[in-house]
Each structure stands twice: as structure tokens, then as C-alpha cells.
Amino acid sequence: MRKRNIYIVLTIICILSLILIDNLPTAPSSAFKKTGSIFPEKIPAAFGFKNPILIFASLLYAFIFFAGLINLGLFFIRKIKGYPITTLKYPKKELPLNQDNSAELIFSISFLTLLTYLLPGPLLSFSGLNPIYIILGANYLFQIGTILIIFNYLKPNFFDFRLKKKELGFLLETYTALTPILVASIFINLFLLKSLGIEPPPSPLIKLIPLINTKTALFLFASQVIFIAPFAEELIFRGIFYKLLRKKYSFFISAAVISLFFAFLHRSPSGIIGLFAISFTLCYVYETTQKIGTAFVFHALHNAVTLLFFLGTKL
Predict the structure, then answer these.
(1) pLDDT tens digits for 276-305?
(2) 26 lies in some domain
(3) What are phi and psi of 92, to 5 degrees?
(4) What is the pTM of this model?
């Protein structure tokens, strides 16, 4: 059996193991539900416009939203008139990995995912440690471990983290233009779930907010959400998976497949359409600039604005 086929089989085993473990009564997600009992009592009281952080977040989002309506309109006008949406267009960079190395890299990421997914369950069930540190620790282990694994196969300069002013302007225009679409996606998503009679559970991010009860936990949580997670996710989804698909398929097929994968892995039924839209736009940003740096800044900016809202309900 070829080396590539062995790694493909091992990757499938890891994925099936994750699915099986997630549906067991003792799964980490089940253990995490023990922390969910504090969720209903603490969040609603924080809503209301007496909190200065929430006021600032709301005004900021309103500004982004209306700027987005303008930019979205300009994008449509350019498209209708036959003008390019952006003048940025860089040569496509091929992923410098052969099939064996690609399969080995994907297996390594899958195996690390399985290991870090198994870690929180026993600790949440049997240790007296603060749940937020256990969950954040497992997330940090996965994200930093994934970054190191990827950099072991590909040099950091391949991804290109340097940003020029015109690239920064392009991603800011694109981010604001996405915002009205995200707002619309929330209502569409909720309408579809209600029509299907599905009561969506709170997103993992919302479930973690009530557990943050120290400055250290807040710092670790914010650092992860704004910097570490976007960095690791962009390397995985755009830098590796998207690039692998893009070798054989068009932009739309590659972006759609990756975005479906991205949306489902975030395990947030109430935001699945928005997650798809975010991922598809990130693929577009990366396709246009051929730089992970632009996708990372876009992702980090979105997470920072979203986190500001959630923290406004907590602090």
C-alpha cells in the first residue's frame, strides 16, 4: 500500500473516532454540558444599554454595517458595469507538497485534533480545575500544535504575512461589505431553524463567556479568539485545505467545499449560514491576494468585533 493511502486510511479512522466519541455519553461535549447550567442565569441580566462596552460595540457595529451597505452597493455597481471589483490580482501560488506529504500533514492535524478533543473530558469530570482553563488549554494545545506541524512542512514565508496598504484597504472594504450579509444571515438562519422545529443550542463561544471569572482567563480567552485561533484556522483552511482543492477545482467549488467544512466544524447551528459566508469571503480574500496575512487580519478583525459584543454582556 502506498504511503499516501496509509495516511488517508489513518485520517479516516481519526475522523470516525471523533464522530463516535462525540456521540458517547462520556464525550467531552457531554462533560462540557455540566458547565452549561450557569449559562441561563448570567447572560440575560447583562443585556441592556447601560454597559459602556456594549454601547461602544453597538455603535462600532452600526458604523461597520452602514459602511458595508455603501461598499456592497459599490461592489454591485462595479460588477454591473463590468468593472473589476478590485484591481488586486496576484499570481496563484501552488502548494509545494507532493501527495504523500499532503496526506501525512492532514493525518497529523487529524490525529492532534483527536488527542486534544479527548483531553478535556476526563479533566472536566474528575479534576477540580477551573473548566475555562481546561478548555482553553486544550484549544491552545491544538492550535499551537497545528501551527508548528504546518510550519514543519512549509516555511512561514510561503504563506506571506506581509501586508501592503492597498491590501489592507481591500480587506477592510470586503469585511464591511460582508457585515450586512451576516446580519441578514442571522435572520434567515433563525427562520429556517424555526421552520424545521429545531431549537439551536448556544454557540461554543457563548457557553464559555460565563466561565470567564478572572483577568487571566479573560486574557487567555481574548488572545485565543482574536489571535491564535484565526492564525491556526487560516493556515489550516485557507493555507492547506483550500490550496489542495484549488489544485484541481475552480475557486467557487473549492471555496464552497471548504466553507461547508468550516461552518459545520464550528458546531453552531444558529450561525451556520453566516459561518459559510465568512469562510467563502476569506477564500475570496486569500484567492485575490495569495497572502494568508490578509485572511488572518480579516478573521481576527471579525472575531475581535464579535468578542467585544459578547464581553459587553459579561462585564
Answers:
(1) 999 999 999 999 999 999 999 999 999 999
(2) no
(3) -70, 135
(4) 0.88
Residues 29-61 have pLDDT tens digits of 544 444 443 333 344 444 445 678 788 888 898
Categorize the per-residue pLDDT at 102 as very low, low, confident or very high, splitting at 50, 70 and 90: very high
Residues 39, 206 contacting (CB under 8 angstroms): yes
The three-point CA angle 99-104-106 to 5° equals 95
Task: With beta carbons less than 8 A apart as the criterion, state whether 24 and 30 touch.
Answer: yes
In a domain, 17, yes or no: no
What b/e readout covers 135-163, taking b as 16+ CB neighbours within 10 angstroms?
Answer: bbbbbbebbebbbebbeebbeeeebeeeb
| Rounded-to-5 percentages of helix, strand, coil across the chain | 80, 0, 20
Q: 123: part of which helix (H) or strand (E)?
A: helix 120-126
- On whether residue 164 sits in a domain, the answer given is yes
Number of structural domains in the chain: 1
Residue 105 lies in a domain: no
Question: What's the pLDDT tens digit per position in 185-220?
Answer: 989 998 888 888 887 776 777 777 777 888 888 899
Q: At what angle do helices 99-118 and 131-153 cross, to 10 degrees?
A: 170
Domain limits at 272? 48-97+157-314
